[in-house]
Amino acid sequence: MIIHKVFNRHGGASHEPYDSLNVSFAIGDNEDDVMENRGRICKELGITMGDLVSLNQIHSDKILIVDSKTHGEIEGYDAMVSDIPGKFLMIKVADCQAIMMWSDVKDVVANIHNGWKGSAQNIVGKTLTKMINEFQCHPSSIHVEISPSIGPCCSEFTDPKKELPEHLHQFIGENNHVDFWAATKKQCLDYGLMEENIASTDICTVCNKKDYFSFRGDEKGTGRFAAVIGIK
Fold this sequence. Notes:
The chain has helices spanning 31-45, 116-121, 123-134, 160-163, 180-190, and strands at residues 2-6, 52-56, 63-66, 72-75, 79-82, 88-93, 97-103, 109-114, 142-146, 198-200, 225-231. By secondary structure, it is α/β, with parallel strands linked by helices. The chain has a single domain, classed as 4-Layer Sandwich (CNF1/YfiH-like putative cysteine hydrolases), CATH 3.60.140.10.
């Protein structure tokens, strides 16, 4: 059974500006509070802390294959793929996309941290390639959910045609705003996924910073909310 959930910023132990369900150790929050928050997430999912695998994300296109020996927080990756029951993959975001993927035929799951640098490097397509080639997931069986993240309403660049590679120029709209939701959907379709299997919350974290952490929207610093997927 595949379980996946996106958590908001509420219901945790952290204090301002990380209030309150921050799951990142890397931004200055009290470590005991972060551990408490991760514990509350595990309790809601019905798993233990030992079941949770997370990444010290670096805005790369590197993908970790999670096996039975993988545990804790792993350095140097931005996506995970697993077919191991009991391993729950957590991505931490505050404007970037957490992209959860799973096959409805095979027990295979993936979770991706996808900011604009990830979009530029096509980490989505590279993760799908792992699922298709290494885990034999047929593209038509793969489902995708895009978490709340910065929307085209707020993703403004100074000069996106210079800052972004050419394959993303088609997503540049008015006033130098870029639609990364549409970019992710297009990258999924390019790898043969079915449009009806690609879901996006279409919730902009900047516009909804009261409910979700937003790096751009919270000027005094902010936390990271969690997206978790796993096989139970």
